[in-house]
Amino acid sequence: MTAVIQKRLIQSEIEQAFDELATLDLNTYDITLCFGASLQEDGLYYYVDIPLDKGLAKDLRATISRNLRPKRRSRKSAEITVHAYNPEAIPEPNDIVCESCSDATDVMEYMAPLANASIPDFDPKDKAFIKGLRCYVIIFSKPGYAPIYCFRHYTSRKILKTGGRSIFAYMNGGKYTRLESDALQIDDEIDCICWDKHIFIFDQSEYHKIFREGPHVKRAAEEALATLKEQDLIDTAQFDTFMSACMRDKRKRARLRNIALKGRITGDHLKDFDKLERFLSEYPVKVRIITVNGVKQLHYGKQGIWDMLKLLDDAYVISQLSGNRYVTGSREQLD
After folding, report:
1. What's residue 334's pLDDT?
2. Phi, psi of 286 (to 5 degrees)
3. C-beta separation of 120 from 113 below 8 A
4. In this structure, are residues 108 and 198 in contact, taking their beta carbons and an 8 Å threshold?
5. How many other CB atoms sit within 10 Å of the CB of residue 81?
6. Any idea what DSSP says for residue 137?
7. What is the CB neighbour count within 10 angstroms for residue 330?
8. What is the DSSP-derived secondary structure letter of residue 202?
9. So what's the pLDDT on residue 321?
């Protein structure tokens, strides 16, 4: 099997999954709306349920359908593409990016509480929760089927607060009536959908704001770098530059946190330099082994910081079908 055929099969799998998602009959699913807020130092979300009447539930179903169906038509006519997530790349504005749930350990950690049977109701008087708002999620669920999680980046600025000096009014029976309670703004957009092993990303910048930004990500990256420094794994002469480059870039900070969550910062794959040497001789990676004061270390070449992060993440694989070498997640083929 040639590399081109292998790549097309991977692309076809992603497109097929998206097409299947876009054709699901959402009217056969129960629907729930939840707010997610970051309330603790770990940055993970505490979710609350927003009770819906039938009319609003119908509108939310229509919102998701309006997002998915035109995208499927555009994909079929090649106006947009669906391709694998690559944190190094900036996708075209209309492209749909797909990240595998198995590679997104950090993102799945945020979603885990949504599987709880009971989620408390939203309390509009809870100022701490409203201050910590980071997203809302529309959940479609049906017994025996994978749930569908539709996320949108959201902050307290989208809540219309009443009770101050300003007067808000709405049209009621031909006359304007004072709005007596707070109102929520929910627009027609959605930033990503998680369904059946896949995360389809429509706005990568907003996706990162929901799951891969915040003080907790920075702290986790700092802790991962401190562990790497203790291990003396990366070229001592390069480490400060490596650390600065990672801490300046939110994508690299998020990658470090994800690597740490997988337990790979201290993984066995980084301790056997004989295996590492064989690996580096077979893969076109901008990393090599050097010896500094009798200690073996990893040295990255020009523009090789991402390659170093992929190596730390144990992200290189060989296809059992074709023998081609890939980066996991993005399925980027290595020449």
Report:
1. 45
2. -85, 50
3. no
4. no
5. 16
6. E
7. 21
8. S
9. 44
Domain ranges of the chain: 3-213, 216-334
Place of tokens 């349920």: 49
CA 151, CA 235: separation in Å to the nearest integer? 40
| Contact (CB, 8 A) for 189 and 170 | no
pLDDT tens column, 216-234: 899 999 999 999 999 999 9
pLDDT at 333 over 50: no
Instruction: Please report the pLDDT score of residue 8 as a whole number.
Output: 53
Residue 288 β-bridge partners = 299
Name the residue among 107, 120, 117, 115 with its Cα closest to residue 43.
107
Using the Cα atoms of residue 231, residue 235, residue 237 and residue 241 in order, give the sign of their dihedral: negative
Q: Which pTM value belongs to this model? A: 0.80
Strand order in the sheet with 192-195: 45-50, 30-38, 133-141, 148-153, 192-195, 198-201, 96-100, 82-84
How far apart CA 11 and CA 178 sit, in angstroms, is 53
Is the CB of residue 160 less than 8 Å from the CB of residue 171? no
Q: Which residues contact 8 (CB under 8 A, 6 or more apart)?
A: none
Q: List the one residue out of 45, 64, 38, 50 whose CA is nearest residue 195.
A: 64
Strands 96-100 and 82-84: parallel
Assign 115 to helix, strand or coil.
helix
Six token digits for residue 206: 């907003």
Angle at 86 between CA 327 and CA 299, to 5 degrees: 55
More reliable by pLDDT, 242 or 334: 242
Tokens representing 173 are 């029976």
Interatomic CA distance for residues 332 and 335, integer angstroms? 10
| Nearest alpha carbon to residue 321 among 16, 6, 4, 9 | 6
